[in-house]
Amino acid sequence: MSSSPAILRPQEDAMPAATAVTETEAAPAAASTPSFAARAGRWYRLNRDRLRAIAIGAISLAAFLVVWHLLTTYRIVFFVRFTNVPSPLAVYASFAKAIHDPKFLMHLLLSCRRILFGFSLAAIVGVPLGLIMGRFKLVHEMIFPVAEVLRPIPAIAWVPMAIMLWPTNEQSIVFITFLGSFFPILINTLHGMSLVDPVLVRAAQCLGARERSIFREVYFPASLPHIFTGLTVGMGVAWVSLIAAEMISGQYGIGYFTWEAYSLVQYADIALGMIAIGVLGLGSSLLIRSAGRLVMPWRPT
Question: Domain 88-295 carries which CATH code?
């Protein structure tokens, strides 16, 4: 009878030990799962530079709006006259009215369509032509002098010739947009081809690569950074050319909308058209940069 408690005591002591082992095994599992604060801190460290750039950009835009508001409210005249410049609130009121106007939306869509056609044609022609000119000396010697003569001609100077060359205003405007973006794309592609390391070309030739493979595996990837630089610059010049063509010979488009607002002395609409051009140009350039990051993931952002 006296031995019974001695037999039961080890079993009672074993239960806390088993519980302690279970808690010890669960502790590393809980520690291996990062908390929300840890994940947020890691995300912040990875995106700190990007967040800093966004914050600085937002502050600069806010400061620009404040300065614009003060200059137009008090109608400052200091070399530059702000007596007739619309205030940000007036431009916002014009935007709130225009966004519900189907005609304004049609102006935006037509300009975007012209940019799409003209810029796409310039990229389809300019990039392969630049690659071929960079690879074959004879082709370069034949085409480069002609391109250098035509390249400095501004888009406005092409308007009368484009009207004579093409049967409709729409085709002439697309042609001017094509010319504006074609030469930056061509020149930057040529520059990229000239910087290809010849050691890589000789290595590919020693390994038995044919001309098509050298183009695909050596020249084209090495030239991609300069090609996308040309595409980005070409997109900006395409917008400049488009707006000039729409102001002179167009009947629709955001350039025509801006010039018509000036003719009707609607100052708020002039500023609205200019801001719309800037936003559309920024958005199209961001699309090209995003495509470049997808095509060239090895490049630092």
Answer: 1.10.3720.10
